[in-house]
Specification:
This protein is an alpha/beta fold. The protein has 3 domains: about 80 residues, Arc Repressor Mutant, subunit A (Orthogonal Bundle), CATH 1.10.10; about 90 residues, D-Maltodextrin-Binding Protein, domain 2 (3-Layer(aba) Sandwich), CATH 3.40.190.10; about 100 residues, 3-Layer(aba) Sandwich (D-Maltodextrin-Binding Protein, domain 2), CATH 3.40.190.10. Helices cover about 40% and strands about 25% of the residues. The strands form 4 sheets. It has a 5-stranded mixed β-sheet with strand order 4-3-5-14-6, with helices on one face. Strands 11-8-12-7-13 form a 5-stranded mixed β-sheet. Helix 1 packs across helix 2. Keywords: DNA-binding, Transcription, Transcription regulation. It comes from Pseudomonas plecoglossicida.
């Protein structure tokens, strides 16, 4: 049994709260995750996790083993990082988190360019609209939109996040041009499913805020899916400028309601201060700031 790998699997099961989610997080099968847990329990002759068909519960022994395993894995990670920091050329694995639309449209091309310059670096780019815990989830860096609340993170400001409202010329020929936010009530709209009370993009009119109407014809958590729907003439889109910049230049989409756009928001590349000495992370930070700062 690979004890270190088994400890990593057990820590993931404990933190994720289920075998299936841990398997997805570690890119293993559920059968393999169960095998590692069973091997640990057989080796120590103790039950670490009580499980049934509906739920699982970490035992007292399991909780103790989790705390010790977490510390051991952190120590192993620090050992690797100290050796990596002695290297001249950037190399090794970088784990990076980014929101989905920002990640696919802006971060992914930057990552591709960085890899071309640094062939000895590998990048695990995870796109998710969830805010990750860099330390707990093992990320080296993350791209964040909006004001930051993490006091323990170093933040480097990037170009601000600016939204645009647009539609295909064919749609506007059929349905007309909205002149003020209230006119959107009579239009077919495309909405992003992560727009919640916590993270919305209200339109601004004479100091008042108007939320994006709820009567959408398509809702998706992927900005590219919404962009394709707008290009097909299915409705009016509110998305970041970088996503549709080429479509606007080529005339496939045209902007609307420019005087009522939501306020721009800051974008930051954040990372843990103690990891900035790693050549791979330092090179990544400098590359991002050079191209998107």
């Amino acid at each position: 049994m690979d004890r270190l790998r088994a400890m990593e699997v057990f820590v993931s099961v404990t933190e994720q709260g289920s075998f299936s989610q841990a398997a997805e997080h570690l890119e293993l099968s559920v059968v393999m995750v169960s095998r590692y847990i069973r091997q640990l329990e057989d080796a120590m002759q103790v039950e670490l996790i009580q499980r049934s068909t509906r739920r699982m519960h970490v035992t007292e022994a399991g909780r103790m083993f989790y705390e010790e395993s977490k510390q051991a894995l952190d120590q192993v990670r620090r050992a690797y990082e100290r050796v990596e920091s002695l290297q001249q050329a950037p190399s090794g694995l970088l784990r990076v988190s980014a929101p989905m639309t920002l990640g696919s449209s802006l971060v992914a091309p930057l990552v591709a360019g960085f890899l071309a310059e640094h062939p000895d670096v590998r990048i695990d780019l995870v796109l998710s609209n969830s805010v990750v815990d860099l330390m707990a989830e093992g990320f080296d860096a993350a791209f964040r939109i909006g004001n930051l609340g993490d006091v323990d993170l170093v933040a480097k400001g990037l170009r601000p996040y600016r939204m645009v409202i647009c539609a295909a010329p064919g749609y506007l020929d059929r349905h007309g041009h909205p002149a003020v936010p209230a006119d959107l009530a009579g239009h077919r709209l495309l909405a992003h499913s992560t727009w919640t009370n916590r993270f919305t993009w209200p339109l601004l009119d004479a100091g008042k805020e108007y939320p994006w109407p709820e009567h959408w014809v398509l809702k998706s958590n992927d900005g590219q899916a919404l962009r394709l729907a707008a290009l097909a003439g299915n409705g009016i889109l509110l998305q970041p400028e970088f996503l549709v910049a080429e479509d606007l230049r080529e005339g496939r989409l045209v902007t609307l309601l420019d005087d009522f756009l939501p306020a721009t928001r800051p974008v930051n590349l954040v990372y843990l201060r103690q990891r900035s000495a790693l050549p791979k992370l330092d090179a990544f930070i400098r590359y991002i700031l050079r191209h998107a700062g």
